[in-house]
Amino acid sequence: MKVLAAMSGGVDSAVAAARAVEAGHDVTGVHLALSTAPATLRTGARGCCSVEDANDARRAADVLGIPFYVWDLAERFKADVIDDFVSEYAAGRTPNPCLRCNEKIKFSAVLDRALALGFDAVVTGHHARLVDGRLARSVDLAKDQSYVLAVLTSDQLRHAIFPLGDSTKTQVRAEAAARGLAVADKPDSHDSCFIADGDTRGFLARRLGSEPGPIVDADTGAVLGSHTGAHGFTVGQRRGLQLTVPAPGGAPRYVLSIRPASNTVVVGPGERLDVTEVSGMRPVWTGTAPADTFDCCVQLRAHGMTSPASVDVAGDEVVARLHAPQRGVAPGQAIVFYDGDLVLGSATITAAA
Question: Most CB contacts within 10 A, which of 49, 115, 139, 205?
C-alpha cells in the first residue's frame, strides 16, 4: 500500500514508520507543523511541534530512506484544538486536547488530504491495535491510547495503521536504538502539548483574563475563599484551592462543580465526587451501533480505570449507569465504551450524578 506516516519527531512515530517500511509499504513521511511560533512549544520534556521536533523527524526519515515533507496545519490546529480547549474551559468543562487533535487534525485534516493525494492509509505511532478492523487496546496498558482514538469512525479506522499496538514502550525504544534512530531515548511529550511549561491555569488566564470570584461550600453556600477565574479549575481538583476556612476535622475539600455564569467554584468533601450515572452526547460508534441497551465497561478519563456499566442509547444521547461509583468525572471529557479490549465507541460527557 501507499501510506503516509505521520512523524512527530518522537520515538513512537519513527518506529511506526520504520515498521511500515519493513512491511513492504510505499511510505512517505510527513511532519505536521502545528505551531505558528515553533520555538516556543518545547520546554525540556514538555511540548511538541518545535523546530527540534521537525529536524528529528527529518533525520529519522533520512535513516529510513523515505521521502519527507512538512505540512503546515498551524491555523487548523489553533482553531480546532487550542481555541476549542480555551472555550471549553470558559464554559466550565474539561476538554481532552489529544482526543480533539486525533479527531480534527490527524484523522480529519491529514487523512482527508492523504486520501485526496492517492494514499491508502495513514500510519501513526499511537499505542493501540486494530483487530479485524476494530479499535482495541495496546498490549502495553500503561501506554494504551485507545481512549483518545475512540472518536474515530469505522471509515477512518479502515484507513489507519497502528504498527506499535503489539509492543511495549520498552520494546519500541530498544528497536529504535537498534535501527540507529537518534530519538530512541527522547522523552515523551505530555498532555496539552501546546502548553510547554505545563501551567494550564496561566495559559488560560493569558487568554481569558482574570476575574475574581468566590469559592463556596456545596452544603452551606458559605464563601471559603476566592479565585481569579473559574476557568482555572476542574472537577476533582484538590490542590491550589487556597481556602481560608478549614473544613471541620481538617478533611480535604475538592472541586465539585464549576459555575461559569457566576464565576463560582463549588467545593466539598471527596465522597461528594462519587457518581453512578454519566450522561453523554454525540456518540461515535467504531463499528455497528449497539442495541438501545447494552452492558460494557466504560472509561471516563484518559488515565482512569474502567467500570462495568449498563448503557442506554437514545439517538444522540447515552446514559451509563455504573455498577460501582467513580470519582472526579468532569463534563467535557469522553466516556469510552469497551467490550474487553475492543472499543465500541465514545461520547462527550455532559453530566454526572
Answer: 49
Q: How far apart, in whole angstroms, are the C-alpha atoms of residue 60 and residue 55?
A: 9
Question: Which of 254, 272, 290 lies at the terminal end of a domain, its last residue?
Answer: 272
**Residue type present at position 21:** V
* Three-class SS state of 204: helix
**What digits encode the pLDDT tens for the residues 241-290?**
989 888 888 889 999 999 999 999 999 999 999 999 999 999 999 888 88
Phi, psi dihedral angles at 136 (to 5 degrees) = -140, 165
195 in a domain, yes or no? no
Q: CA–CA separation, 291 vs 228, rounded Å? A: 46
Q: Which residue numbers are catalytic?
A: 101, 193
Angle at 234 between CA 253 and CA 252, to 5 degrees: 10
CA distance 165 to 130: 8
CA-based nearest residue to 6, from 163, 146, 166, 129: 163
The 10s digit of each residue's pLDDT in 156-191 is 999 999 999 999 999 999 999 999 999 999 988 766
Distance CA 345, CA 337 (A): 5
Residues 268 and 305 in one domain: no
